[in-house]
């Protein structure tokens, strides 16, 4: 029995040594056979129609940390869990790099850059909004494959190819490519910002029809930095906003009562006298309190009209025996009376009542046949 126990302990120690060696090889990045390692953890593939790449990459990083996967094994784990379309896209992008690479030789940084470029949030929105085309013009032989032709046919896209060695057939597109390259070379910004600025100016530039691409697509001109030099909204138009009839008393410099929200007891008034300083949009206004001149922002529903009583004016009492303070003898320049050729008629200015006209009652009127 003692010999059997010793043999079992030796076998257990050998197995533990083998496991430790395998763990060290995994951490060091030395490739080992699949039979010696455990199977790769399963992670759901990326679906661009249901999830953004940013959210998927965050979930993948969490999965990598939870399973203690090294950075050198991240490309293998990522590619082994992707669909055929994503794998083919990364493989094509790797072959089109300045120095073509095999897909198995890509690092995680290169794979992340490829996925971020092809599945960015802006590209995702554009694809979802303008995903179906009707016509495609090209000369490249890469677009003549049966797979691409069947893909275009399923979406109703007509492929048109020009004559060989004649780039002027698609001269407008070739000229745009030249303009784009010149703009990107002269720009000192990053690639993303330079592309954004170029497309912004291109989409607001009028074409041969006199309208810009943004006006043809959206029916309005998009705003740029140059539009900030011109006021977007005139101050004069703010007083002409369509305000409901219930709040017709809301005008600039108009007296009103503003709601007081600091009511602690019965002595604190619920409504405070104030004056409207400025109207903000369709529902708000700035008011200044009459007591301490504090300025608050209130909704129209938190305002009430206030009417100021006009003070009584005292008129002097003129008596027939009233004596003026002026001296009796003073120089008075006589006024010249202009002779009127025709006398001006004097008519009464009172509102006359219209004459009463006899009207038969409705029950006495005869009906017309």
UniProtKB/TrEMBL annotation:
Disordered: annotated segments: 333-369
GO molecular function: nucleic acid binding
InterPro entries reported for this sequence: Integrase_cat-core (IPR001584), Retrovirus_Pol_polyprotein (IPR050951), RNaseH-like_sf (IPR012337), RNaseH_sf (IPR036397)
Coiled-coil intervals: none
SUPFAM superfamilies per record: Ribonuclease H-like (SSF53098)
GO biological process: DNA integration
The Integrase catalytic domain, residue ranges: 139-239
Protein name: Integrase catalytic domain-containing protein
